[in-house]
Give the backbone structure.
Amino acid sequence: MEPARLIWSKWKWGLLLVLAVLVAVFGILQVTHQPAAIRSTTHRTTASLAGFTPAACTLLPPETPPELATVEFKTDFRKHCVHYDEILSGGPPKDGIPALDAPRFVTVSEADAWLKPNEPVISFQIGSDARAYPIQMLIWHEIVNDTVGGVPVAVTFCPLCNTAIVFERTVSGRVLDFGTTGRLRFSNLLMYDRQTESWWQQAIGQAIIGQLTEQGFSPPQAAVDSSQAVRRLVALALAFL
């Protein structure tokens, strides 16, 4: 027994190193010899992201919807302008990250108790109605359905890609309310409107799946700034979400 233990103690690290090299080589072979179908999908995805604009949204032939999507949503999945294999689960289910529909607001002095001067906020103003939405709150909600200066807007933030965009949520004369799908496309937030359950990609402000596919909206002007800088606005109200 002792000679066997001595041999194992002497050679085990060398054997483990050889095993690690074999695993690495196998992984490289898997990547470089992947099937043509997978290679073409990857190429298509990259090209789609680079050139995808609202004008380029073209309806595609029927495909199998994302896993469990037909269970959670009443979306018309027959209508879509992106490939369903580009959509991945982010982990939470539909509305697992809850959007806010009635944000409460506090004054600048009240916010000083919990909002540090260098903390990032999304600042947005229509007319004399100026508001700030702390990123520390949006990380947990991602969408705020609000009305600013009499205009219905959706204040959105995607933590994975750090995109903060405010949209006017009136489309073709109809006010839409947004929630989270729990899915991602290119690591970006996919929202859905509660009226038609169409899916919208946050980064491009466009419906890509469902009844409203090809519809889009232009984002109003908004900025991400420090709370200290935003305090310079005269009529600032800070969102306490």
